[in-house]
Amino acid sequence: MTLSTTPLRHFLDLKDFPYQTLRTILKLSADLKKRLAEGERPELLKDKVLAMIFERESTRTRVSFDVGMRQLGGQTIMLSGKEMQLSREETIADTARVMSRYVDAIIIRILSHDDLLELAGAASVPVINGLTQLSHPCQVMADILTYEEHRGPISEAKITWVGDANNVLASWIHATAIFGNTLNIAVPDAYGPSQGMLADIEKAGNKINLTDDPKAASEGADLIIADTWVSMGDKDADDRLRTLEPYRVDQDLMDLSAKGSLFMHCLPAHRGDEVSAQVMDGPKSVVFDEAENRLHVQKAILAWVFGIESLS
Ligand code: CP
Ligand code: NVA
Hints:
312 residues, alpha/beta, Rossmann fold, 2 domains, 5-stranded parallel sheet, 4-stranded parallel sheet, 13% strand, binds phosphoric acid mono(formamide)ester
């Protein structure tokens, strides 16, 4: 049983952190990536056990946390929400209290952000947000690492989001307030930001511009980002596909962006919907570097929640 007396290091949302903490995690990600390329797997979390609760589908988050924990010398237990007593109405808080007596940390993918917060509030081990309907902080950390590897400081980047106002965008809004990049958001009114997102946009000041015009938003962009038009939990797929049709990232849109611009997508992608195959598989696309970086960032986040901030 691990009952910590020091404050717990959860990783729930980027907006919870000062710039320096996120920089520490990004540096650790890059260092772990370099070490892995050199054939080294520092066992920073030897014999620690990570519980992985997935209420919803996942390929990247699930595999990168699982492999990342093993590369750090730890172990994982994969739990699908459906197989747990959670699906038979055991409370999230009781689940958190019990799991905290067995494992050293928990990562959870769960649609309800309130449930994530309830789990973290009741847990006595670190909790990591593996995506909720409101945010996807691990993804955006990997996106930032990827951008900086290709193009340098994110603070100087002019970034454009095209699509609907979803969880990944929410984490980009949080990141923008912290890292100081520019973020142009092109979304239709019908799928625009919630009140909560608007409040976060307000906090980022003049760094964020909101429009319904993808062309205007993409002019001179250093990075264009798309995501699926139908996120997990969205019930109105037909309407979304119709309404978001003008928000496809295609070659014409990319041609409006800066000469050295990049394209990112957290994946899974739907070629022909939110992105054309030409862009997705074209020379500006760094989507598979982005997916790979989930592994390196996940390892750094895992190390950080256990109090490790650098490699010796
Ligand atoms: N980008 C991402 O989180 O992918 P998965 O849904 O496959 O985990
Ligand atoms: N916005 C997408 C991200 C998937 C990784 C979703 O929530 O389904």
